[in-house]
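Appendix B.2, paired examples.
Example (i):
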Amino acid sequence: MIIWVASFPRSGNTFLRIVLKHLYGVRTSTVYDVDGVAERLGPELIGFEKRPSSIEEMRASERPHFVKTHRQRAGEEDRAICLVRDGRDSITSWARLNGAPDFEAEVRRIIDRRDTVGTGSWGRNVLSWLRPPAPHRVPLRYEDLIREPRRAVERLVATLVPSLRPLPDARIPTFAELRQLDGGFFRRGHTRTHADELPDELHRLFWSRPDNAAAMELLGYPRDA
């Protein structure tokens, strides 16, 4: 079976993969041919593995295969962890990670994405995984993941793959430890990062997108949060 580890970029996907690796010994592949994050941070920390076979073969296997994706859901009905974060924080963090010389132009470019395939815009991406709701697509909020990673992930795994059990000597790296490893990647690690980084004009542009507004309302993030 496949369990998608699905999110818009910079929503905590890498930390989730690290928790899965250290808590369960689970290794994750990606839907992409190259895992740039594993190359940057080290495959052992992430728990990276190359895809052992095609998506269809992995889907048909009795073994659970955890596969990272930032793509919009395109009709897949596999099990999925749907990791979500306040969209304003995600786009701000992604723009910073991209290192573009003009930060505000990069944020605008991300907000203005119109792709119907691939990553797409934040709102379209989130809604594709959460709508329609399904018991085999389980949402995980970024704030819950960073506050209580063990409890949050154990709850998900018990729902999606109840045969898995935590390792008896499991220890999850702290964010401070991860920052020491790569402070450019593990940048701030908390909520409301947009509050002191996202200009008012871009904040309004973000909310002007109907898909963003619908996804934010669905997740319960108010405009003044």
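Example (ii):
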Amino acid sequence: MTRTHVSFSDLRTAAYCPRKCYYQRALPDEDREPPPEVEAIRGLEPRYEALLEALPDDLKREPIAVSPVRYRDRLASTRDRLADAGHWDRLREPDDRDVFAAGRHCRGVVHKVLAEPLEPVVISTGEPPENGVWEPQSVHAVAAAKALAWEHGESVERAWLEYPAYGEIRSLDLTTRRKAQYRRALRAVRELDGPPARTTNRSKCEPCEFATECGVKTRTLRSMLGF
């Protein structure tokens, strides 16, 4: 029996919380479109060189998440580090952009495709962790790599995560652990015939738009202060 391809976004959400993925998949298509700020942040990426030369007052009008001085310093450090390793130019001038890729099990848009070697770049609108990348983003990157590998008929050993609002770019190797996380998320999405168990990590529930529908009780500021 042919299985339906799973979208990158569903995999990413399921890696964060399968129950959230269940509620999200029930939304109409128009309600699943990313908000305007997502495209605004992604729009920073093609303009890194101009942003490095921009005045602080001009940077304040951009959708960056840190102060203008810190942003320029961080982006310059990222550029220098990647240029020394021979990656900056290939990241700035990818082989292709916004490519729809369908692999054996998953599909979605790969924001940038690098060549020689073949590698996907995922552009994240969020904040990077102190080190590495978050698990949902790792799952997304592995999915993009697998889709490209399937279409091109060649192996992909590394992927990239860009955080334009923070001036950060990080690479990740497709390790056995990361591939296992991807398979776990894929299995979770395919088993969504009903709401999964609630997550035990309540910190994920605080910002979730489905918290009320899910029925989870989150702590209010008053309760945390002991009122």
